[in-house]
Model the fold of this input.
Amino acid sequence: MKAQIILTPSESKMLIAKGVVASDVVKRALQNGWIVVSAGSTNIFVLKEILRENFKEEMVTLGVCGLITSKKACISSEMMSFLVRNGHAKVWILEKGCLQEKLTLSEVLKKMGRDDVFIKGANALDPYGKAAVFLGAANGGTIGVAYGTIKAKGINLIIPVGFEKTIPFSVYEVAGDVGIDSVDYSMGMRFGFLPMEGFVVTEQTAIKTLTGADAYPIGCGGVSGAEGSVVLLLKGDDEQVKKTLKLIHGIKGVKPLKISVPECSECPLKKTSKCW
Done:
């Protein structure tokens, strides 16, 4: 059986979140280990899927750090205030599925091992299934601080990213040319570019995990609120495809996150940040 479906970016984020939480490694960590969820628009959906009734709406406004708007690359207003107060971005730390508010990122990294999970979204996905993330802070931000420990200790790095972020060449091809101090002009914040090695979860991966069907991206784009959408071809036996269609119809209509960004004139980091 074959079917064609359309997912807006927000619907893709919800689907990917469900796929992340349904993966064996995350299910094990929710039962017996540690999970770190970093800030990010897709990760907010992951956190919502994990916490369910314990999810609080204020987590949305604090859950996105760096972002791309039609005018500039920036940091969300709420995260900007958090950064000024704390010197780092927000992360959510879970032990056996329960939030641990008092632990810091450095403290939990010391506790984590091969059965634990670090979840970090991406800004780019290449044709070879490799992902990369923008680095807005000079120290590399959350992933810059954590990545060495993640790879040294063999912590499971899960990278949820939608096909809307596909680029047409290897993430390694451009990585050496992008950096806060190596570009001369930027619309908004300048940033670095870090390819990450981990388990990439796309719409395709999520559907395979959740229903067993195969999904292939055959087009992207749209209008009238469908900008950035992905068109997928589903293939599988009747049960797999029908199960997928039921899943997708349950996701349709998910609204985009509403995130505010500060005006440049009001930015508390304008003296130190490299914008424009």
Observations:
- DSSP finds ten helices and 14 strands in the chain.
- Residues 24-210 form one domain.
